[in-house]
Amino acid sequence: MSRRALDLLFASGAAAIAVLMVVLGFVLADQAAFAEDYVKEQLGEQKITFATAEDLKKDEENPANAEYKKITQWKEGSSCLNEYAGKAMTTGKMAECYGNYYIGMHMARTAALTKVDGQNMGWEGQTYATLGTVRTDLSAKIAAAKTANNTEEAAKLQKQLDAATSLRSTMQTGETLRGLLLTSYGFSIFGDKAALASTVCYLGAVVLVIIAAGGFVHAAMTRK
């Protein structure tokens, strides 16, 4: 095969691949736009607004939360609450921030500060799932106390069971909403990846067009 024919072959192939990459780029860009619009629409329907900076400061300075600060340090990254303060939730990143650092913080705080008759129950770190075990254990203790005719102990344990039941209900609501928000965040990440892949396709197409153009030029300058 002559050099000129080889140039034409490779240049044509590069041009064809460039066209395919442009088409793929358009498809990926369309999917990215769909993901962004869908997440924005779905989150907008929830009408969730971040707490204002003033409310966040009041919450932080609230004496009732001072004990919680001693019990545990909150996760790094919660500074996003100040970044989005007072804004309506419209993006996946905002959903992640609200789910992880606002809902998550309040659930952790509620569990850590749950008290019965002024006594902290030590339920820090408990979740909806683990509180089921706590309730089962308390129910068994109540049954044993009643069997032993220890009504005072049974009444005390019943208060703890009621508190555990209430906390578990709170955890269920919080974890459900948090899970839905993080799902929206995950969906938005796929959109971001599609947008990135689309950009890579466009850049690759540009490189191939340059290569193809060079091949055609070289073929034109080469003798038959």
Description:
With 224 residues, this protein is an all-alpha fold. It has one domain. It is built from seven helices and two strands. It has helices at 3-46, 53-61, 66-71, 80-83, 92-113, 128-147, 151-221; strands at 115-116, 119-120. Strands 1-2 form a two-stranded antiparallel sheet. Strand 1 and strand 2 (119-120) form a beta hairpin. The longest helix has 71 residues, at 151-221. It is elongated and about 110 Å long. The mean pLDDT is 85.
Amount of beta strand: under 5%
Strand order of the largest sheet: 1-2
Main β sheet profile: 2 strands, antiparallel
- The quaternary structure here is single chain
Q: What is the mean pLDDT?
A: 85
The low-pLDDT segments are none
Shape: elongated
Name the helicity range.
over 70%
Number of helices: 7
Query: Got a strand count?
Result: 2
How far apart lie the N and C ends? 11 Å
**H and E order:** HHHHHEEHH
Give the SSE layout.
Layout (H helix, E strand, L loop, with lengths): L2 H44 L6 H9 L4 H6 L8 H4 L8 H22 L1 E2 L2 E2 L7 H20 L3 H71 L3
Antiparallel strand pairs: 1-2
Helix pairs in contact: 1-7, 5-7, 6-7
